[in-house]
Design a protein that fits this description.
The protein is mainly alpha-helical. Helices cover 70% and strands 1% of the residues.
């Protein structure tokens, strides 16, 4: 059978293009359209065209800006810790390959648990009335009301849960990268008398750069839209101390039914993620950020 070498438009891809447009692009256009109207299922007079008023309201909303700040805090703290801890454990395990088949299945257990279940596990365990960890902390006088019940500790606890669950993901990616590195440069460096640190700095780290970029991007997108654990454990509280952008968007759209304002909120969340991803790609590819902004 002869395979066509034409790299132009292929008629066989038309169904996939139509499906993609229907599933992804059409809802996106509907979201933009709704964001321009005062649409709400709780208002009798809803439906008036108001232009960019919803966007101005979202930017001036202290609850939304607080949710953005909370999300940034989670990203800034959780990502580096998961990155460094995952790399450290991966390097240790890679040096003891005989233990890999016993250690790896245990380490990745938190990663394979559904986020909803993780929220239930830690919500129950940290409860000061009947959770073993919560009772222990209460008796020690560390957290009498529970780590998730006070504004000072709730967000830090959410970050700790995220680190506990997703550090194994980083570990798994880095371990795969370490196992896939060519052995010839490592052996040549050892013959030349290079120290372990020099080998790690000059050969291992540069060889893992594609893995680092992939791991960071995957975790960034995942942490950026964190929802399940927060909603199960704190529902964004106490107050708004653990409110993320995703929980705020869900609350506005599906609890308050402010469809127009909620669409503007989601659109702003999308624009922030698009800008951050573009800047990240330009930084990792060596391009100038001036071309992005």
């Amino acid at each position: 059978m002869r395979i066509s070498k034409n790299k132009g438009f292929n008629l066989w891809t038309l169904p996939a293009i139509i499906l993609t447009a229907f599933v992804s692009f059409l809802p996106f256009l509907i979201m933009i359209y709704n964001s321009m109207f005062d649409k709400s299922y709780t208002k009798i007079s809803a439906g008036k065209f108001i232009g960019f008023a919803n966007y101005r309201q979202a930017i001036a909303d202290p609850q939304f800006t607080g949710a953005i700040l909370n999300t940034i805090k989670i990203i800034v703290v959780a990502l580096p810790v998961e990155f460094i801890a995952g790399l450290f454990v991966a390097v240790l395990v890679s040096q003891h390959m005989k233990l890999r088949k016993f250690v790896v299945p245990i380490i990745i257990i938190p990663m394979i648990i559904a986020p909803t279940v993780v929220g239930l596990i830690w919500g129950l365990n940290l409860n000061p009335n009947y959770g073993p960890v919560g009772i222990l902390l209460r008796n020690m006088g560390v957290a009498p009301e529970g780590l998730l019940a006070t504004e000072k500790t709730a967000l830090g606890t959410i970050i700790g849960i995220d680190i506990w669950q997703w550090t194994p993901f980083m570990f798994l990616l880095f371990l795969a990268g370490l196992c896939g590195l060519p052995s010839a440069p490592l052996e040549a460096a050892a013959v030349d008398g290079a120290s372990s640190w020099q080998v790690f700095k000059r050969i291992t780290l540069p060889g893992l750069k594609p893995i680092f970029i992939t791991a960071f991007l995957l975790r960034f997108t995942d942490v950026y839209k964190i929802f399940d654990v927060i909603w199960i454990t704190t529902v964004g509280g106490p107050g708004n101390s653990t409110e993320s952008m995703s929980t705020f968007g869900y609350r506005v759209n599906f609890l308050y039914w402010h469809i127009g304002y909620g669409a503007a909120v989601v659109m702003i969340i999308y624009l922030i993620s698009e800008l951050a991803s573009t800047i990240f790609f330009n930084l990792t590819s060596g391009k100038k950020i001036e071309n992005v902004i």
